[in-house]
Amino acid sequence: MTDVDVAIVGAGVAGLTTAYQLGKAGCEARVFEAADVVGGRMTTLREDGYLIDTCAEQMAERGYDETWRLLAELGVGPTAAPPIGRGIAMWRGRARPGVAQTRGLITGAGLSLRARLDAARLIRGAFDTGRPESSALGGATVAEFAAPHHPDLMNYLLQPIVSGFFGWDPARSAVAPLLALLTAVGPPPTWRAYRDGMDTFARALAAKTDVTTGFPVDRVVDDGASARVLSGTREISARAVVLAVPAPVAARLHPGHDSAFLRECSFTPVVKAHLLLDRPLGGPDYALMVPAAENGTVSTVIFDHLKHPGRAPEGRGLVTLMAHPAVVPELLDASDEDVASRLTGAAEPLVPGLRSATRRAIVRRVRHAAPEATPRALALRAGFEADLGRGVVDYAGDWVFLSPCSEAAVRSGLRAARRLAGRVVQPAEEGGGR
Q: Which CATH architecture has domain 4-41+199-264+373-431?
């Protein structure tokens, strides 16, 4: 007899979705989370009336079918995640609006005419966020894909997007997952932000599941017919375990799964400084992409109070600065004061008055922010997914699809639950119990 049917490690949306679906199927599922709050990479801090999204910044109206279905099921309506209604600008001497929008192909959005024509061709071809390796682009990196085109395509579109959204190095990450995601989610003004913080979805799922926070897992042991979750002197036995944590963490917790994909599925780290302002700055766009050619320290400026007015108290502002991937390694171990000073100083020319308006800075370091989607990992992905469900240890997370978005995490959780429901629930019902 085991303590629980399924033990799920990680209370991000992948793990919580898995638990929620298994519960609907009649399975006793319990989630164990190292942090004191749920959400994983979709957590929100609440400080002095500010809502601070620590990693994920937005979701999409399009391409998030499973997310919207689950939200409706949980009673979370569309008004809980209103459209941002604002676009993204590219910095090229000044903020140039229209990034990833049709109007940007006319106004430029920082691109020369030749580069605009190249950008218009980007969306040609078949892309699949569930099977990114199926693209005709194969394992070409972002840099390799851009090489035959006008240099502006790389310098003032692709590099700022991959570095500013995912912390990617264009020379390391494959382009197919990027284009699959960009073509799925539609233009930025249609993107949405949860009114009460990006942890809204996770909190709604957690309210319907059994979650234990403050429970850091040290190791998962596969005993053949069952598995054990070890945390210090505590031990939880389960008929199955789902590791819903970033791939490098999963590989460390369960080294017995000798998977080439797990070894190759690296993640990029992100460092952010959230600046609590005494007045709102910026506009009209809610985000500013900053090319490495213009500024090698800051990659993205997000005006959170423009993303949704509830992110800051009335008359105040909230700005998030995301560090450029090239400086992240040194900032990971720097003091909060040094990180905030360096990023704020680099962003001052982009947002005049930023330093004087800052009342307080909160620094966040996310060591596993997004799956890096290297060509090697892309080549191994389909084989890894095909083998899932054959043992007592399973996996969930956006990295299973090499698609850095919460919809991929949700889909992976749904699939993990489907794989386990028949194997774990049915025998229990037939046998009269666990």
A: 3-Layer(bba) Sandwich (3.50)
